Amino acid sequence: MHGNEVLGRELLIQLGQFLCQEYRAGNRRIQRLIHDTRIHILPSMNPDGYEVAARQPEFKYVRATCTATKCWAASCSYQLGQFLCQEYRPRVQRVPCGPGEARDMDLNRNFPDLNALMYYFEKTSGRNHHLPLPDNWEQQVEPETLSVIKWMQNYNFVLSANLHGGAVVANYPFDKSRDPRNRNRVTSAASPDDKIFKKLARTYSYAHSWMHEGWNCGDYFEEGITNGASWYSLSKVLQQPAPQAKTNKDSALPREWLGNREALVSYIEQVHHGIKGMVYDDNNTAIGNAEIAVSGINHDVTSGSEGDYYRLLLPGTYTVTASAHGYHPSTSTVTVGPAEAIQVQGIR
């Protein structure tokens, strides 16, 4: 996201190369991952800012806390046999040597602020997923932000990560405090999926060569993970689990890649845990936009246009209900193990 950050951009380019090379070399783990997972990689959300910042003398001397790339990456779903690597080209060259894009906008403060609405719905038993965007939101965001939001709307994404520059830590949602009076105090803001988000963060941290040690560059995070709001409260951000790392020297990139390589692959593999299935009617017609609710977790997911759904869950026994307008709900009890996702079919 930030033009003067480099590490995440380089790691994601390297990840794409690694996946392709290992696939062609016959690495069965990577071949299976690519066959069974639709992987989207966006190395840079702000290429125009990066290109200009890279030519500035100040670029080599930016503080270590802002010299790694922040980008939206590793968004995966179970769609088979597709691998996509995208990198947008620069549009405008005149930007300052800083985090902003062409109009000097910090893109990580440019997304619609849905946290306040979500916290309100928590109190009023409102929607717990796919919250409505504000009126005229498309005119209120930058082109890069608009493109990313449209991208997310076009795919039934299951898992994502947003690489930041800064402390070496895996940051998990939520990033904004529930109490606005606590903006100057660190208080955790757990999501309904807090347990799974902690597990995902630990997966990245412990697969990373040193993140799990906790101590890095004067910061300490137990197990190398943190809740976003308990670190510092933010709004209008791209709310995803966010592994972070830093470097300010080209010579450090090989070490950083080796440190993050297994963490990136292991994280993507986590998309294959929980439950998955299809939602059909009695005529075997797919039902899109059906709601899949798990008892005890106040966050539903929806089926895609072809009736497919995916729900990340930890091992355990769950009561799952599929519902759609005009149909009777269908409820099942399912036990999720530690291995591959369990298939649970919905409305019939």
List the topology elements:
Elements: H1 7-24, H2 28-36, E1 38-41, H3 47-54, E2 71-77, E3 83-85, H4 115-124, H5 143-154, E4 159-165, E5 170-172, H6 194-207, E6 215-216, E7 219-220, E8 225-227, H7 228-231, E9 242-245, H8 253-269, E10 275-278, E11 291-294, E12 297-302, E13 308-311, E14 316-323, E15 330-336, E16 342-343
Parallel strand pairs: 1-3, 4-9, 5-8, 10-16
Antiparallel strand pairs: 1-2, 2-4, 5-9, 6-7, 10-13, 11-12, 11-14, 14-15
Q: Could you give the order of strands across the largest sheet?
A: 3-1-2-4-9-5-8
Give start-end ranges of low-pLDDT stretches.
Answer: 59-97
Q: Judging from the principal axes of the Cα atoms, what is the shape? A: globular
Structural class: alpha/beta
Q: Helix and strand string, N-terminal first?
A: HHEHEEHHEEHEEEHEHEEEEEEE
Can you offer a commentary on this structure?
Mean pLDDT is 79; it is low at 59-97. The chain contains 8 helices and 16 strands. The chain is an alpha/beta fold and 348 residues long. The chain has a 7-stranded mixed sheet with strand order 3-1-2-4-9-5-8. A 4-stranded antiparallel sheet has the order 12-11-14-15, with no helix packed on it. Strands 13-10-16 form a 3-stranded mixed sheet, with no helix packed on it. The radius of gyration is 20 Å and the shape is globular. Helix 1 (7-24) packs across helix 2, helix 1 crosses helix 8 and helix 6 (194-207) packs antiparallel against helix 8 (253-269).
